[in-house]
Amino acid sequence: MEFMTGVKEKETVDLAAVTAEGMEGRTVKIEGTVHTIRDMGEVAFVILRRRDGLLQCVFEEGVTAFDLKTLKEASSIVAEGTIHKEARAPQGVELRLTGITVLSEPAAPMPLPIAKWKLNTSLDAKLNRRSISLRNVRERAKFRIQEGVVRAFRDFLYSQGFTEIHTPKIGAKGAEGGSNLFRLDYFHRPAVLAQSPQFYKQMMVGVFDRVFETGPVFRAEKHNTKRHLNEYTSLDFEMGYIDSFEDIMAMETGFIQYMLKMLETDYAPELQILGITLPKADKIPAVRFDEAKQLASEKYGHKIRNPYDLEPEEEVLIGRYFKEEYGSDFVFVTHYPSKKRPFYAMDDPADPKFTLSFDLLFDGLEITTGGQRIHDYQMLLDKIAARGMTEEGMEQYLDTFKYGMPPHGGLGIGLERLTMKLVGEDNVRETTLFPRDLSRLEP
Amino acid sequence: MEFMTGVKEKETVDLAAVTAEGMEGRTVKIEGTVHTIRDMGEVAFVILRRRDGLLQCVFEEGVTAFDLKTLKEASSIVAEGTIHKEARAPQGVELRLTGITVLSEPAAPMPLPIAKWKLNTSLDAKLNRRSISLRNVRERAKFRIQEGVVRAFRDFLYSQGFTEIHTPKIGAKGAEGGSNLFRLDYFHRPAVLAQSPQFYKQMMVGVFDRVFETGPVFRAEKHNTKRHLNEYTSLDFEMGYIDSFEDIMAMETGFIQYMLKMLETDYAPELQILGITLPKADKIPAVRFDEAKQLASEKYGHKIRNPYDLEPEEEVLIGRYFKEEYGSDFVFVTHYPSKKRPFYAMDDPADPKFTLSFDLLFDGLEITTGGQRIHDYQMLLDKIAARGMTEEGMEQYLDTFKYGMPPHGGLGIGLERLTMKLVGEDNVRETTLFPRDLSRLEP
């Protein structure tokens, strides 16, 4: 009988073992894909691409036991060689090849110049060949940064006593009303895809006090802008026993600070590849919705057309204002008008035309919507009635409040938008692995 | 201007601060929900339920500045009192109340006896009132264990150089063929919900070498068993540069060992609440499909009806065999017949009727399906042709191989099934927050 006892020691090493101190002169085997071959005649540079970076390998005729002519770019190989210091090589070391073993070969030459430092290809061409274009080192680095964002979100919230939940994406009714929903047939019953985990995360506050979820949400919006996706990853949390809705903004600020620190320490190579200087978030200004509009209007001569809504251009101007006046890339805009927020938003007792809610703008783009929710059963019923809505299909959501709920609130962060701003892109599709928009359903 | 500077210090404390050494005699404020009130006349025990556990609070007439008659179960409160050692209390300490502040009250008495140690309510009743039934301390503990499983999966894979990815759930075509797919209208185009992230994670092996995803998958299967869900959470990974498909089993064994350790250290209170003894996974036997069938058939007198398939009863018997003969709760069953595996499965060169694949059985239930995949472009085209399938809709998946891919493989783990077996339940709905099955679309 054979037994599995855990991760197997490999004969091959990783990049860290090659670049470590004291490895000079050692002979190692390392796997990777042939990123490029630069043939100089008697010597050739074979650049190996691995998950942990690039490694310069040197092929020398008469030394390397392999026929260079038969080596193709995009082949997966095991390279065997001796480690030498070389200041001009990417990692400060190079591998002088003694042998090459080919694991697999491509069937056709590369259709995109992925070995170039910047892949100067149109967004459409990149998206059409996503599994190829991301082999470019800069392109893939964006998604390593994205990993860091999600990882920081979870790690930080675990440390704050949050419990992770997994809520269904197929349901009978949407949390925010009937518009913009993808509809499907669920064993001959009408069903919809979840626009957000809003109802579920609130329902779980009565169980775990603090919960979070990182998962897909679906919006059948007919927008076709650089900021919109029809499926995206939402980072959601909801917390009970808040003293005020500022607790939620404070928690988000804590997350952002934690995230920036984690990116700096654990994702330094990717930050360097992308040439990114991270923003500061030591203190994030918070300003009322009406005041923010006024400030931007006065400074930049923008006419306020609708006092109850924030146009994308106004968001940009508010972002610019707080960058110029306070040096901050982030700004919380608070107290959004009640009529622009969902029924479950808590109105401000001081002026019920406004809510105890906020958006977080990053470089002039909304990346978060959050706020305090109504926790009182009767208040919730009254708000539903006042809006002319029906309780039908919300029975179990409402029961949660009937049987007691602490004061609570939460937020949702758009992962792709946050990543886009962190890496300095201007189209959210650049930081979405496989975007879904009005025209794109594949790959 | 107001500024957010990070998580705010709260006036209230958490349970760890109450139970810590040297806190006796201190006066603290702590928030929670009134779990039960046991009124003994001049003294009453008010049990507070919090995310971190239960706290016994003692109400004394004339000492506690509050009218006990007005306190309702399921109210959210801030309790203020002095910490005293008390061996009979759940945490070894109790809080002698000086005051109570009510934050919110329920509108009706609790419909389920959630304060009982075991909630002896039917599964249907529990699921119909999910946000209430999970307020039972044992019920919610199962989902804390579930959190630990996912957390361990990610932490372990990060440590092994995997990158987390987020792939779309709406697509144009399913990875495993046309059956069992939920269909929807995507802006007047036919679309389906992803049965698995299979194609996408393979496509990303060429980019990141090792990837994983934890997310929902959707299967329109008309099964109505204790093991099946129509939406579940899949823990998927895919890894390149494998020497053989055993590398994948070895990696999964490493994960399970890591998970068991993490549950033991970080989720000890929940293990205790549920009375769980964790299984061992130091060495997991691996046995060929045909051999496993034979062994179970011989020992238990089970007749082999179909040599190419494993019936659920056979899985149970194989699980029993390896428990009895080797003391193992886990067993890898390898080399499944080719005709029972998808087209992308790598056939065994030694006998192409079988594949380099495996299932992992835990206590006689399949919790994982995995294996090596075909990485050679021409081999993949040949297999598609041999099965009479069409390449249509798979162009970008196939292009990934055309332009070079390392040998690779991976697996998918059903989170709810794994949790179910860990906590000793026998219906997967017990370990699903909001199950979706043939009859259940709400809440």
Can you tell me about this structure?
Chains A, B: One of its GO terms (biological process) is aspartyl-tRNA aminoacylation. Chains A, B: It is found in: Cytoplasm. Chain A is of the alpha+beta class and 443 residues long. The first copy, chain A, has two domains: 15-104, OB fold (Dihydrolipoamide Acetyltransferase, E2P) (Beta Barrel), CATH 2.40.50; 137-431, BirA Bifunctional Protein, domain 2 (2-Layer Sandwich). The first copy, chain A, is built from twelve helices and 19 strands. The first copy, chain A, has helices at residues 15-19, 123-128, 130-133, 137-159, 198-208, 246-266, 268-274, 289-300, 312-326, 377-386, 395-402, 415-423, and strands spanning 2-4, 27-39, 43-50, 53-60, 76-85, 93-104, 163-164, 170-171, 183-186, 189-193, 210-218, 231-240, 284-288, 330-334, 347-348, 351-355, 357-362, 365-373, 408-414. In chain A, the strands form four sheets. An eight-stranded mixed sheet of chain A has the order 7-11-12-19-18-17-14-13, with helices on both faces. In chain A, strand 5 and strand 6 form a beta hairpin. The longest helix of chain A has 23 residues, at 137-159. The model of chain A has no long low-confidence stretch (mean pLDDT 96). At the A-B interface, strand 1, helix 3, helix 4, strand 7 and strand 8 of A face strand 1, helix 3, helix 4, strand 7 and strand 8 of B.
